[in-house]
Amino acid sequence: MARRRGLVSNLVAVQREIERNRAAQIRTQTAAAREAERARRAYERASAAADKERRRLYLEARSAEVDADNSALEDQTRALGGLLAGALARNAYVDVNALKKSPEYPAWQYKHLESPGIGPSIEQFVPAPVSGVSKMFGGKKHEVAIAAGEQAFARAQSDFAQSEAQRLAWLDQARANYAYERREAERVAAEQNEAIDAFAGELRAGDPDAVVSYLDMVLHDSKYPDDFPKTFKIAYVPVSKQLVVEYELPSLAVIPTVKSYRYVKTSDTVTETARPKAQIMSTYSSLVAQLTLRTVHEIFQADRGQLVDVVVFNGMLSSVDPGTGQRVRPCLITLRTTRETFEVLDLANVEPMACLKHLSASVSRSPAELVPVRPVLEFSMVDPRFVAETDVLSDLDQRPNLMELTPTEFESLIQNLFAKMGLDTRLTRPSRDGGVDCVAYDTRAILGGKVVIQAKRYKNTVGVSAVRDLFGTVMNEGASKGILVTTSGYGRSSYEFANDKPLELLDGANLLSLLAEHAGIEAKIVPPDSWTDPTADTPEVEQVRPQDLNTQGLSDPVAEPSRVNPPLTSAKEIDRIPLTAATANPTPDGRKCPNGSCSNFGQPIAGPQCPVCFHYARG
Fold first, then answer.
1. Deepest of 35, 37, 205, 383, by most Cβ within 10 A of its Cβ?
2. CA pair distance 273, 279, nearest whole angstrom
3. What's residue 474's pLDDT?
4. How many whole angstroms separate alpha carbon 397 and alpha carbon 525?
5. How far, CA to CA in Å, does 288 sit from each of 274, 284, 293, 313?
6. How far is CA 128 from the centre of its chain?
7. In terms of Cα–Cα distance, which of 443, 441, 460 is closest to 451?
8. Which of 426, 419, 451 is closest to 569 using CA atoms?
9. Looking at the whole model, is its pTM more than 0.90?
10. Burial group, residue 91, by CB count within 10 angstroms (0-12, 13-18, 19+)
11. Percent above pLDDT 90 for the chain
12. What is the rounded distance in angstroms from the CA atom of residue 417 to the CA atom of residue 451?
């Protein structure tokens, strides 16, 4: 009985131990589960935090991208608005001498040949001296070794001598080659420098090719945005010191159509604010104006030798006509200005469009819509066929020489030319200076009218008095326009006087181009050696008026346009000028000065012209 109770007690104890172990295992598993849950929640919290941080960093990156895009837009807009200011901050002058180069010597690569080698020594070949027992019993053998070593030493000396001789030969050859390469480098540099010196000399002498090449360098050196075409053509007329530039304008695409960017976080998108069309148009117009003023400024600034007195700028744009789909290249801006007129401008403070208006430039009323203007001088009219007297091929040239025509033939040529151009030529008469006076009519409605044409066969530059005479004739005839054609050219004063007046000046190159285009006549202008210009209708010496004197009492050859004749376009305007009391005492034939801006206005005039303003008197 007692034994059974002991067995039961053991079984109960074992069962309790099992239960305790099971409970401990459950507690361990529960704790592990709780720890796993805590780890999972911690991971989820960390993941959520990481996602939030990633989201924050992503939003910051997107915002930074948009800020960078807006900054780039501002920089682009600022650069377009500062084209003129950027040119004023740098000097456009190109120092031709800076193009010279020093010889570019090759590197000496044979330094190792300059050091002699180390010759053999006798100790390397003969055994060391012996002593003691070795000397007593091995003497004979030692002597044989010494003899063999001395023979080997002799051979080594011979080989070394040959090696040194070879080294010295190579060194001499290397030095000779190097000296030749140095001489070649010096020759190349000297030839280039001589060419630059020759170019500088030609430039100082006013050689047309040198002038064009130099100013081509100047304009190519001008820094513009990368998407600007920077393409142009230059022609130089030395007789009138006139430079004609045909410049390819950038298209409207250079103006950004986006005003700003904005990042929308909720949709993770970037929205654009469009730039107003009116702002795009005004920015483009300002760009064209700035580019024009900048180009003229760079030309005059770089031309320290004052080889250019007059600059003609034609801004062209290659595009596609949206109405026809055809390629077109309209002229959007044209300007002719003189150095004196341009250099008094303070370009740092001008408004570009207003400045062009002041310079009497013709600007497209809508450049973005490709509305063209008529160039003041077509680039094609600056004809390279206007050959100089020194042309060695002139004797072989079979083209008719305008300077060899009789006065009657020249008169017929000019009359037929303008008839081919669409004018109704009614009357011509030879002038006293060998030229032609022609009264013609442009039959176009509104734009047409009476045209006075004068042509002069001159070798030397036509004086400003001829231009004044033409303007007086236009006023007297009540014509709407005057055209002066010459076989030579015009000076700065002539262009200054013709500015803002209904006058057009065509030089020899223009005449050749018009003959080729409208009459199909390929001609040349080569004055004979014996040619002398005829006496002009009025003296070629320019008259000096009191208001044209500077503080030193010296005459200024160029009068400001505002101080010369006002831009009257027809005789009707003269009739509208109010008369003053000064007209009460006219000369017997009743002639008076008709110029309301002249200090002699209304005063009686004895001669055919007012002595102050040079207007022809009106009776």
1. 383
2. 13
3. 86
4. 11
5. 22, 6, 9, 12
6. 85
7. 441
8. 451
9. no
10. exposed
11. 29
12. 14
